[in-house]
Prior knowledge:
The complex is a heterodimer of chains A (about 250) and B (about 220).
Chain A: E1 12-13, E2 16-17, E3 29-33, E4 41-47, E5 50-60, E6 74-81, H1 96-109, E7 122-131, H2 136-150, E8 160-167, E9 170-173, H3 177-182, E10 185-191, E11 197-200, E12 203-204, H4 208-241
Helix pairs in contact in A: 1-2, 2-4
Chain B: E1 3-6, E2 11-13, E3 23-26, E4 29-32, E5 36-40, E6 44-48, E7 60-68, E8 72-76, E9 83-86, H1 99-102, E10 108-116, E11 122-125, E12 132-133, E13 138-141, H2 147-151, H3 156-165, E14 168-171, E15 176-180, H4 183-198, H5 205-220
Parallel strand pairs in B: 9-11
Antiparallel strand pairs in B: 1-5, 2-4, 3-4, 5-6, 7-8, 7-10, 8-9, 10-11, 10-12, 13-15, 14-15
Helix pairs in contact in B: 4-5
Amino acid sequence: MIAMDETDISFFKDGFRLDGRRADELRPVKMEVGILARADGSCYIEMGGNKVIAAVYGPREVHPRHLQEVTRAIVRYRYNMASFSVEERKRPGPDRRSYELSKVSREALEPVILTSYFPRSVIDVFVEVLQADAGTRTAGINAASVALADAGIPMKSMISACAAGKVANTIVLDPMKEEDNFGQADLPIAMTPNGDITLMQMDGNLTRDEMHQAVEMAMKGCIDIYEIQRKSLVDKYSQLEAPTEEVQACD
Amino acid sequence: MDRKVVVPGDLLSEDAKRSGEGTFVKGGKVFSLLYGLANYRDRINVIPLAGKYVPAAGDNVIGIVKDITFSNWIVDINSPYDGLLHISEFPKRIESEEMSKYLRIGSSIMTKVKDVDPTMKVEMTLNDRKLGLIKTGRVIEISHTRVPRLIGKGGSMISMLKKEVNCNIFVGQNGRIWINGGAEDMDLAIRTILLIEKEAHTNGLTDRIVDFLKKEKGARS
C-alpha cells in the first residue's frame, strides 16, 4: 500500500471483506413483526448496522381530501432519517434525498398492493431510520413490505430488497458503509420472490458484464431476505400455537 | 382441519378452480393475497389475521353517531368508510329538526348495512326489530377478523356463550360487540370474548372455552 488516500484503502484481506464477509454474503438480518401497538402493521429490522422501523396505517380516510382517488387507494410512503442516525448530526426533516427515496420506495411497493380493494382511502407507510450503515432504503423496503402484510393489506406478493456494489474492481453483495462511501458503484434493487424487479437504481459506474453480475448477485440476496421475511411472519403466529417449554434452563 | 400460516404470494394450489376468498389466480395457479391462515377445503380460503373492516350489504354492525346533517346521521362503523343513516331509515317518521332528539352525537346504535355502492357510499338502516339505539349494557371492540370465530360454525360458539354467561350479546361484523346482563356476567363475557380473540387462530377453541367458563364459574360459586 503506497498512497493512503481514501479511495485506496484495502477492501479485502485474504479474500475476506473488512467485516469478515465473503463477497457474496449478506450482513446478519434480524426482523421483528408487530412491535408497535398503535399501528395497524409494523416491523423492526436490523440489517448489519442499519436499524429501521416501519409502520403501516390504513386503509383509512384520506386527508387532505383532494388527494383521494375514487377508484383505488393511494399509497403514501415516508422515509425519514433520525437526526442521530448518522455520525454527523443530520438536520431533521425531509430533504431532497429523503423525498427521492420515499418516491422510489413507494413505487417499489405499489405494484403488488391491491389498491382497487379500498377505493377512496389511503395506506400510509412510515419508515424511520434509527441508525444508518449503508443500504437504508433496502432495509426500509424490506421492513415496509412485512409491515404491510402484518396490517392485513392484500398483496400479490412480498417485496424484498438488497444492494450489490463494486469495490476494488470486485462485485460485492450488500455493501456496508466503508464500501458504499469509498466504493466504485452501488446498485440497490427490490423485487418479488418471482424475480420481477420493482426498483433498480445505480450510483457509480459498471461495465455491462459487471452490471449483469451485480444484478444477479443482488437478486440472490433478495431471495435470502425473502426467506427471513417469511419466517418472521410465520413465527409470529406459530409461537402462540405451541406453548414453548423453556423454563428448564439454568439449574 | 388443515390450516397453515401463509404470506402474500404463497402458492396454494395448482388447480385454479380451488381459488376462494383471500386468494388470486395467476397462470392457472392459486396464490395467497393475504398474510393469514389458509383453510384447505374444496376451495382454499385465506382468513386474514389483521385488516380493516370493509362494509358489505346485509352486515349487522354497531355504529357510533359522529355527525348529523340535514337528513342523515353519519355513523362511525370502525372502518375506513363512514355509514350514512338516512332519516327515512329510522323506524318511525321524524322531522329533520328533531333528528338529534332520537340519535345524538355519540349514541351507539345496532344497525345494518343496507347497501354499498362502488364508490363506497355506505347506506345504513334501522328498520328491523332487533336494531336500534343502545341504552344499556356495554360495547367492546375486537378485531373484525376474529368475528367468524366468535360466532362459530352455524353460530355454535356464540349461542353457547350466551347460554353460559346468561347475557344478551349482539355481534357486529365490524368487531364491535354489545353485551347486556348482570355486572358479573358481563365481566365474564368480556373476558371470554377477549380470550377468543387472542386464540382465534388455534384449533379446538370451543372446547377450551367451555373449560375456561366452567373453571371461572366454579371459582365464583
